[in-house]
Amino acid sequence: MKYIEGGVCAAAGFKASGIFCGIKANSSPNKFDLALIYSEVPCAAAGIFTKNRVKAAPVLLDIETLKSGKAQAIAANSKNANACAPEGMENAKRMAAAAASALGLKASDIIVSSTGVIGQRLNIEAIEKGLPQAAAALSASPAGSDAAANAIMTTDTVKKEFAVELTIGGKTVHIGGIAKGSGMIHPNMGTMLSYITTDCAINAEMLKKALLSANSVSFNRISVDGDTSTNDSCVVLANGLAGNAEISSENADYALFLEAFTAICKDLARSMAADGEGAKHLITCDVKGAKSVEQAEIIGKSVIGSSLTKAAIFGCDANWGRVLAAMGYSGEDFAPEKVNVAFASAAGKVDVCKNGMGLDFDEELAKKILTEKEVIIDITMAEGDAQAVCWGCDLTYDYVKINGDYRT
Amino acid sequence: MKYIEGGVCAAAGFKASGIFCGIKANSSPNKFDLALIYSEVPCAAAGIFTKNRVKAAPVLLDIETLKSGKAQAIAANSKNANACAPEGMENAKRMAAAAASALGLKASDIIVSSTGVIGQRLNIEAIEKGLPQAAAALSASPAGSDAAANAIMTTDTVKKEFAVELTIGGKTVHIGGIAKGSGMIHPNMGTMLSYITTDCAINAEMLKKALLSANSVSFNRISVDGDTSTNDSCVVLANGLAGNAEISSENADYALFLEAFTAICKDLARSMAADGEGAKHLITCDVKGAKSVEQAEIIGKSVIGSSLTKAAIFGCDANWGRVLAAMGYSGEDFAPEKVNVAFASAAGKVDVCKNGMGLDFDEELAKKILTEKEVIIDITMAEGDAQAVCWGCDLTYDYVKINGDYRT
To answer: What is the rounded CA–CA span in Å between residue B184 and residue A292?
Structure first.
């Protein structure tokens, strides 16, 4: 498996585009606001969506659409979430119909997504006018994927785009994805918006299985602020154009596919955590020696979700007591007196807590380690052999600033 | 029932003091660091403590001590939490022994508390030297309670101190309390540090019952940052000197006591939320029309715990979509399409969401309402008749600043 360019256009038969149709203010730094992803042939499709009780209209529509296990295109807008909005479902359906018409497909072939402010009417007229332009702009080149990745950004500062190439059954298979994250990131069986395409031949059932498996160790292991969005969506389209024997069981080919697919999901998830609103640090929490993966994950998510731990990392302060406190309120039972904690980064590693007690450590070295962009909180328990890695980011002035005045 | 001066010294037979013994740096703005609360006669006593799996040594010791249902004094230090600290239990016991010796009591009569940095060895020598001074400084005047309230502050900016007077069984009864809060505030059957004294005659069993009842609608309904501390403790001492017939069942006298006691707990809890680290606003979330009090509370706590909602209130931004989203990820089932939301304060009230959809509202008025120090998020559901009120605060630059460099 090797990393390649191209994002969602890396796989054969996929095209993408991103345009400005007038939902964002013209002056937005990322001014594209309408993305389109299209496969030349029908695809096996699977999706996972927010568990929030309040679901955006496009999420409710997509859940219905994906019952068929098929789709062929994705239309997504940024700046408006079409959640709790007047005429929400009507406008989601109009968006699907307009995309279908622009692409010569049926509305039931279209996945629609929206992301942005909750509670305001979607400017569906701008989208209906924009979709034919977006269809005309479709491109199979990496620039097509770039434009789509740009068009789904809200407060994101970097595009999230990854692709890999691998061999399955003697055929070259590609998997590529784009995502947007930033704030309201605490995915629960989904994530903000993430789209993954592949030319691998795989049926809808196995595709869903792979998505659930990869999601559980990627998108479900990140948190920016503990706020689960109304619009979390992760959709994967597989068009089979790689020509490999269709994967329809958990065979060796599935294992190869799953490994690469999981890698893409982890890359997208990590990049979302690293670009969390206002983030200066990517925090990786590596929990080892847990009695189960579930326990390791619950404890890891409690640590990366702790406002106090996040603020300490922002201040490059090796305040490991907050890590212990966050482990302790996770709800999991464990022996605090057998916990070891270290901080690590490209600048080195420093042990700060052994057997639940503070160690004398080199504060200068700790500061240097925590000044790096990517820092690791390394936790070892003595409960068992299970491990989980979770990703988050620090809590900064900019997070507060961005979210103090988001609507206007 | 009327409010009076005096805090923990309002009740007959109680004295308190606060001194500087050398745990805090001399230059701290609140330089007292050792508090003592003492009753001239033995008391019925009850306490509730953090549910964090990682408990500070004094919490573990107090849980043992309170099994007798009796205590006579409380010694508490700030700046060091004595949690995950070398010789933690040994030092907690030394602290109890030193207080007992200074007061002519037994160690089993003493409740000890610590609050501050986790993981550092407690300077027990300073405390042992300080306790006789603190005992000598004990005073029954309001100044004694003030000094004790001062001595338990860490990043608190205001003292939390309340007292009431009421008549039970023809006798004048007093209930008074002090507390400290600020950060790591997300109490789970306890709160940071809160001490309440009363001269009411009430047995230990009924006192515990009253404490659990009042706690469930006060301390357990606030959150500053979702971080449950290792040291949360709320202890109440009742010395019976008011001379009323001892309360030993849920009779009319108990109802009177409970009402006043609950009021004090709510006052202390609200003041903790209002003085959350860096807070500019006290946020009251009033959830009505829930199917149960539990549901209303879970939804209310989800809203006041939402970083995005908190940041919006900091920005005086009427971003009610974040309120809906936080309700939705609370885990509770409800009909989003029947939810109404309004923002209110001393400056007025504005309806922003009706039946789950955004209303056109006066943005100028909304801004004006949200600029007030105390703002109310008023939520009405259509699930039933239950209600709960929760309190939190906004998320500000100062929260990040305070916690980016807390240890040093």
So the answer is: 28
DSSP codes of every residue in A326-392: HHHTTS----GGG-EEEEEETTEEEEEEETTEEPP--HHHHHHHHHSSEEEEEEE-SS-SEEEEEEE
Q: Where in chain A is the domain with CATH 3.60.70.12?
A: 2-274
Q: What is the dihedral of CA A145, A149, A152, A153, to 10 degrees?
A: -160
Are B356 and B337 in contact by the 8 Å Cβ rule? The answer is: yes
| Mean pLDDT, chain A, integer | 91
Structure tokens belonging to residue A105 = 């497909």
Can you tell me the distance from the alpha carbon of A239 to that of A54, in angstroms, rounded to the nearest whole number?
Answer: 32
State the sign of the Cα–Cα–Cα–Cα dihedral B52, B55, B58, B60: positive
Question: Are the beta carbons of A230 and B328 separated by less than 8 Å?
Answer: yes
Query: Looking at residue A30, what is its pLDDT?
Result: 66
User: Which residue's entry shows tokens 């953090």?
Assistant: B50
Flag whether pLDDT at A194 surpasses 90: no
Split at pLDDT 50, 70, 90, the class of A29 is low
Query: Which residue from A225, A325, A407 is facing B54, i.e. has the nearest CB?
Result: A325
Which among A90, A42, A95 has a CA at the least distance from the CA of A70?
A42
| B257 Cβ under 8 Å from any chain A Cβ | no
Work out the minimum CA distance from B134 to partner chain A, whole angstroms.
Answer: 29
Residue B343 pLDDT exceeds 80: yes
Contact A178, A52 (CB under 8 A): no
On the question of pLDDT at B371 being above 60, the answer is yes
Of A343, A350, A397, A341, whose CA–CA distance to A375 is shortest? Answer: A343
For residues B34 and B90, is the Cβ–Cβ distance under 8 A? no
B184: chain A residues, CB-CB within 8 Å: 308, 322, 325
Q: Which residues have C-beta within 8 Å of that of residue B252, sequence separation ≥ 6?
A: none
- 8 Å CB contact between A137 and A17: yes
* Given B115, B191, B228, B396, the catalytic residue: B191
Task: Please identify among residues 46-105 of chain A the ones whose CB lies closer than 8 Å to any CB of chain B.
Answer: 51-55, 81, 83-86
Q: What is the DSSP string of A36-78?
A: EEEEEEEEEEEEEE---SS--HHHHHHHHHGGGSEEEEEEEEE
pTM recorded for the entire structure: 0.82
Range(s) within chain A of domains with CATH label 3.10.20.340: 282-404
Interface contact A308-B183, CB threshold 8 A = yes
ipTM for the assembly: 0.79
Using CA atoms, how far apart are residues A162 and A177, in angstroms rounded to an integer?
Answer: 6
Q: DSSP class of residue B218? A: T
Q: Does domain A282-404 have CATH number 2.60.40.10?
A: no
- Assess contact for B175 and B10: CB atoms under 8 A: yes
Sheet holding B357-358, edge to edge: B222-223, B386-393, B282-290, B374-380, B340-345, B348-354, B357-358
CATH of A2-274 given 3.60.70.12, 3.20.20.10, 3.30.565.10, 2.40.128.20: 3.60.70.12
d(CA B186, CA B191): 7
Does B404 contact A228 at a Cβ distance shorter than 8 Å? no
Marked catalytic residue, from A50, A65, A191, A198: A191
Element containing residue A34 per DSSP (H, E): strand A34-49
- Secondary structure string (H, E, C) spanning B16-83: EEEECCCCCCCCCCCCCCEEEEEEEEEEEEEEEECCCCCCCHHHHHHHHHHHHCEEEEEEEEEEECCC
- Residue B190: the pLDDT is 46
Name the residue among B188, B308, B317 with its Cβ closest to that of A329: B188
Note the Cα B121 to chain centre separation in Å.
Answer: 26
B228 given a catalytic annotation: no
Q: What share of chain B is helix, strand, coil (3-state, %, to 5)?
A: 35, 30, 35
